[in-house]
Specification:
The chain has 410 residues and is of the alpha/beta class.
Amino acid sequence: MPAHTGAVDPSAIRLGKHPARRHRQHARLRDLVHWRLYGILASVIATVAIGTIGFTAIEGRSTIDAMHLTIQTLTTVGYGDVPLKTDEGKIFSDGLGVAGVVIVTIGLGLIVQGFVSGGLRETLRKLDYHDRIERLEDHVIVCGYGQVGSAVVDYLLNERLPVVVLDRDEGALANLPLEVPRVCGDANSDDVALAAGVERASCLIATTSDDSDNLLMVATAKLLNPKLIAMARSGEPEDLQKMQRIGADLVISPELEGGQQMAQVLAEAPSGVIVCGHGLTGHSVMAALVAAGRSVCVIDLDATCAERLLAGVTFVHGDATKEHVLMEAGLKNATGVVVTMDNDAANLMTMVSVKDLRPSVTVVVRAAHPDNIKKMLALGADVVISPEGAGGIALARAAAQVIEAQRQGQ
């Protein structure tokens, strides 16, 4: 997400600092949208009324006949059944017809311009989101629509649970399904959180890649709604306790969650496992495999990784994409290889090198981007796991359980 600006995106709905002011601003925005339609309708009614009065006075017609003549004039269908009697009436009819054509042309032009430019359509959509959020209760607010946030939203939508998405980036929100209500702004500010209905929500899930932002989002939400269940993503292990101290009910590290799932695939491996990469995900894989009693060898380009290994874990300093490094790590006798780097190109190259040397070995690969999962499977990976997706699903599943428990308690 972009850096913290402390302000609502100017292309989004403008939000005041107090509920009453926000309602007034939304009312003004709605008025701006509706004035074109109301203005066109009022002009047509006024023109029909003037025509009716004019034909009544000039032609001496009854009100019904005068209105009939007026509509015939404006719609240019002719006067076959009610002909004009006087020259004055004909002149009046000509003027009325010209005025009608001008009004219709201008009105249609305004409507078409609004929809072609997208401005009217977009404004109406934002007003619809605002009205829908105002009616929501016991919903889930997802702060941040990146890889973790999208996994959370997809899970909640599949469970048919109400969700509102907050993000500073209008472009990120454009990737949301149109039916999902959203607010573009800084979730750390009270007015944006209130615009998302935080005071009526069941859960808030902070999913950005910035731990300090997630911490502040949780604190803001808890102050506005102490009963809210607040959950957060954490990218750094030392931030887990900080978030819990300020009120987070659940904190999940996608890297740790994904690492544990990757390790489970080879937890029953009869012989050694090679772990390529020793970042957060790689360390999580190593720890889970050691806990399961597996023999582990770690490969990493950073020689200092050797200082952070668990007892009994061997280390090879080198590039895991190179065949001689893989062989030095014991690939010839290994049961499986877990590729955990945060670079999908490097992960693919490592996987291909492993399969070239030992086609039968089980290879579990990390996908740093969900779009690459199918490519990795097509190129020979046995299992592909996205830590961001795993972490998002874990957060969303916890939120779904909270809502289910609240519903059963009602």
